[in-house]
Structures
1.
Amino acid sequence: SVDMSLVVVVHGGGASSISKDRKERVRQGVSKAATVGYNILKQGGSAVDAVEGAVVTLEDDPEFNAGCGSVLNANGEVEMDASIMNGKDLSAGAVSAVRCIANPIKLARLVMEKTPHCFLTDQGAAKFAATMGIPEIPGEQLVTEKSKKHLEKDKNEKGAQKAECQKNLGTVGAVALDCKGNVAYATSTGGITNKMVGRVGDTPCIAGSGGYADNAIGAISTTGHGESILKVNLARLTLFHLEQGKSLEEAANLSLDYMKSRLKGLGGLILINKTGDWVVKWTSASMPWAAAKDDKLHSGLDVDETTITDLP
């Protein structure tokens, strides 16, 4: 039916502490991304189009740990991961350890639609990007001063492993429901500051960690401590609770609480069901998010703090 409620929800990663002026830029960033995704849906675009559009917007915004602005690995370089999934037929595409391209999410979508595979990595992904005509850009174009500072700080902190679960919770993601009742998710990240070269987190793992989409249940994108998310299969675990008849709120709380109690892992998620109800939840200090539905834009960053405005 055409009167399905269109919805897009985005997150800009979890965070331990965000300065006042950065809070404003981050809120604007997620609000813009949700609006971009929502407009795609209103023009008849698919859920896949909408989540890709929203995530591209966040990759292009240097405030977020994805695309330009990604954190640096131990070698001082940007290595990015991304994935996308279509709830209609469970088709999925992912890339990991990609360098020198502006929008890894676009490459993930091409893996989904132009190859028989789900997941390409490193040099194979680079070769495929070139074949598909995705322009290579100098790696330095993705590096910001802020990322350089973070790497310096991390390298100088002794015993930083203990704090690792608490910081660097940066991933961007989106979920959407379109007019045909299809859901999708997309997610993209630069990973963890000072990570080992070749480290892969939860973001490209469509095995139900970084995200999942199934028309029969809903769609989810996760963020937080990647290793913890992988171990509990956070995305699929949350959808499992939803399938069992739990509410969106309960499903989100159950899976996040499990990850926290079992592994001390902090994280967050955005979740929609097949009828377009949505929820955002996190256990990290804050998580920038925005949701667009019924021509209204909802956004927030800290617990119990939501702003609602009318979309043009």
Note: The chain has one domain: 7-310.
2.
Amino acid sequence: MTWFWGLVTTLVLSTQVVASETRVYISQIIDHPALNSVKQGLVEGLRFHGYKQGDNLTLEYKIADGNATQAAQIARQFVSGHPDVMVGIATPTAQALVASSRQIPIVFTAVTDPVGARLVKRMDTPGRNVTGLSDLSPISQHLDLLTELLPHTKRIGILYNPGEANSAALLELLKQHSSSRELVIVEREVLRSDDVKHIALRLADEVDVIYAMTDNTVAAAIDDLIASATKRETPVFAGDIVYVEMGAIAGLGFDYYQIGVQTADYVVRILNGEKAGDIPVTVAKGSHLAVNLRAAQQLGIEIPESMKARVTQLY
């Protein structure tokens, strides 16, 4: 009967292996470098904590191609798979996940205004099955830096998608902080990434600088925005340091890979038994000052020495 008990032991151990496998499902609103970096940091952060894909971790990763309806479909698919944790990268996909389940723990990340987006009622006590990280841009610091670099600025151009709650929140903050600085905000709505190029071309003629917010629609076409502005010899100041590498003259922002790593910490706390709703929502830590010398020289802009001394990334 030794073989019988050996078979039983094998079956029990096999069951334990399957039961111990962790399932984390990730939904991302659109494919662009900053959000891709969040996903990469999340996977690396999970690996650091001992959760390895193909070993004891099953990862499901889908991108909604900037489409809210598709984000909702992905959320329903995820719920039917009964994962241990669902992660929403950016506001629209986080909203879709939160609307899809009140039982499965949800971690959002790279979300500008979690309260305004109705993901949580309070940052310190989110409640229900939801928590996560905000990447609220330091708007006041952005304006200080912009006017330090371009002291003659009077009119700042903004492209944004009014359907994105994060963009509406950022625009409101921008208006609040710009009024005390006697800066005029010239805003233009853009509903599709395909429209960014020609709207940016017209806007560049009306302003001294274009401020590229962390708007997902704009981010997906940031190359077009920068190319259009450069054609009109109008500088682009970045709300995301990824844009600086692409040709914006300067920007102050987060390291989105590190935001992903911080997001993994939230996921692991939930996997270790904490309730999502008991974990406070926080604003992601860390910021970097990036400058693109080539882009600045192309537009005849001199980077102040005081700014060069603070640069953490130089292109």
Note: The chain has two domains: 19-135+255-283, 139-253+288-314.
3.
Amino acid sequence: MSALNTRLFYLFNTYYNETATPQERDELFQIITSSANDAELTALIHEAWNSLEINEPLFDPTKSLDMLNNILLNKAANDGSAKIRPPDNNRLWLKIGVAAALMVFTGIGAYLIANRQQQQLNKNNVARVSHTHDVLPGGNKAVLTLANGKTITLNSAQNGVLAQQGGASVYKTRNGQLVYGGGQNDAQEQATAMNKVSTPRGGQYQLVLSDGSKVWLNAASSLSFPAVFMGKTRDVEITGEAYFEVAKNPNKPFRVKTNNTTVEVLGTHFNINAYTDEESIKTTLLEGSVKISNSKYASVLKPGQQASLTQTGQIKVIDDPEAEYAIAWKNGVFEFKDAGIETIMRQAARWYDVDVSYQGTIPTREFNGSISRNVKASELMGMLKYAGVNFKIEDKHITVIP
């Protein structure tokens, strides 16, 4: 076996076994996309495929472009945060998926090899546009509006105590969190000291409420809340999207209100997506239990379930075994599962603070995979080109071209 064959076989197997380092993954894809002997490369990958001893039908050629999309999503981020997500995390499908994905580059789908001269893949094997027209990712940006109307720009405010509200101290930590603490006196003032944290498009923020509950706000979102929770319930209100880790207190339920809907919990982890430009309001439960209600319906969620509030006011509950997709944004990742181009572009518009338009017919392809939210807009959009979705970036505007 030649030195190239030996090295490629090693890289292929480390990739398959999920032990490859980011440098080894880069090397593997570099060899695949630049090999001068495509026949030898094809034979070697077929040999590795056969060694998997899978008694299943061969990979469906019609799925090759989808698998290529997953591979490109995998390679989109330098930090290794992007990944292929095999369906249902089943080990058999992992074997088939990884092997078939690499075979896309050879006999089944010679997409890259046949068009190598035209593609000129960059270091990350992701198409990019000129950096003279690009948009940086969002970051920690928010504005705090106090009960007296005073506003504080949190991303530029100094660390330390920012204000006193209802007997509670409001301060910014060194890691950029907004924290409410104290507040045992002046009960009447506490009850009326309502605050609001708002994130712009291209912003996100994390805060800790006076009861210890943690809240992550996504871009173009807001949270209204009292400086100190008084009375029998802990009531807050959101717009946009937020992830909650609620401090347990059986004697004082935590209630989140949005668009005439209330989510009531005692202590749990859940995500609410209530953007007005989405088709429905979605509540995804990761831990504990929540009750969702409006004037017509009420449902109780169990961990791993998602409730959708339709435009008619009906609440639909579905099992969601991959609930982590709903909170990928909180973990700094774009995560797509059977996502249409419009779904992706709505997320892109909010995170990169751009406007989006479509030239001609909107593409109907669906996408699966993940990529870090720390990449520039061109890197997110560039990977879509391999599925036939073209685009151009001009100032703060992205045009999608079929």
Note: The chain has three domains: 3-119, 139-326, 346-401.
4.
Amino acid sequence: MSMIKSMNSKWVVALLAAFTLLFAQSTLYAAPASQQAEPAVTEYELFLKEKYEVSLPGQATKGDFIEAVAELLGAEATGDEAAFTDLAADEPLYAAAAALYEQGILKGPSIKGDQPLTNAVAVSIAVRAADLEELAYTYPEVKVEAALKSLPLASGFTKGHVAQELAAAIDTGLLPAAYHASFQPGAAASEELAHTLLGKVLETKGQYKQYLGYLSDADILSKLNHAYASSDIIDEPKLQKLVNTALEQELITGYNLKDSRFEANFIDSLSLTYGHSDLTHAIQLIGLLRSEGLDAKLQFEPKTSAFVFHPDWGDPGENAVLIDNGNYIVYSKEYDLEFEFRNAQDKEKFETVIMAYAKKDEADEQGLIAGSWWQPLYFSDTELDSYKLITNNLITSPDSHYEVHPFSLNENSEKVVEGFKAIDPEVNVTPYQFWVDVPFFNYLNGGST
């Protein structure tokens, strides 16, 4: 949807067509990343609950923690039955314990799953789950002693694997500095520490959020410029063969192609996605949101828009391919900006700002940021009162990290999916509904604003 200048332009028709088928929460962070070393504990807790349905009780047992770690890692036992001295194969904890035992995260033979989770045990399991075990065991005693100086430990606690694992947890940040002053190995692990260690395991394994920074960071525009310059037209022949055939058959008029490796993985209830093509627009949008008192985590997700272009519309440009029916498929470099706001109120306020300063209602309208569109595109995976439901007929492949996103009205989704299946019976299509802004919804229904 790049180069949108006026509603009379045939380019507008072509580019917009690409999409036709196509706490009560508390504040999760109080300062930008440059001012806050660690995410607030509630941020980890909410992430674990929303993404994995994992929530530990106020005083967790070792068994609770074992089950949570197994769930996060997707760990399943594949070998012979583990011979635990205090856990039978028909007990509820056995499957998770056996899976972690097989991976070397639990040592056995005694599990003691019903005992309170202690600080030392939680850290040891987290270190092994985060694949830091080998690093820990390289620590000589003198290095362990140096690392543990920040903890109020009894003298002599510098030998053995537990001390090495604790030292590695400190040096790698798996055990954040906020917990050092009160850390006692044998004390019961607090709910906050247990959730934090689980969150840190996900970070180390690359399963947590990824983002450029916060809107309020001093270097956020530099990072955004670099991310945009590093992106390009995406080429994925296998998936594009399928959806380009659908374009030729006029089953759809466009689609978006994205790389799942850039997915922000934000908390759904606090996040919004905003699509555009113009870098200047993105830079000004960040300034606009900051000027309105909004802060958020920001991730840049590159995407390519593909759409049908008719030859009588003019020159299709260099990123165009002639198809059998005489039309062209044109590819446009675009992006999605993914925001995770501090709270639900800020997420709701986003639309007010866009409607006032980033939505075009007249051809020569003044007082808008550069590159504003007639139908701005932003959407949420959770319900917002003023938004409308549409469908993303998501196409994925087990052989690729690329995804195809053809949007459609809900009532057209079944026909779109059936059409894809007719072209390729093995195609993996997962339709799901999400909430989009009203102007874009009106466009899908044939409206102009």
Note: The chain has two domains: 10-22+215-444, 37-204.
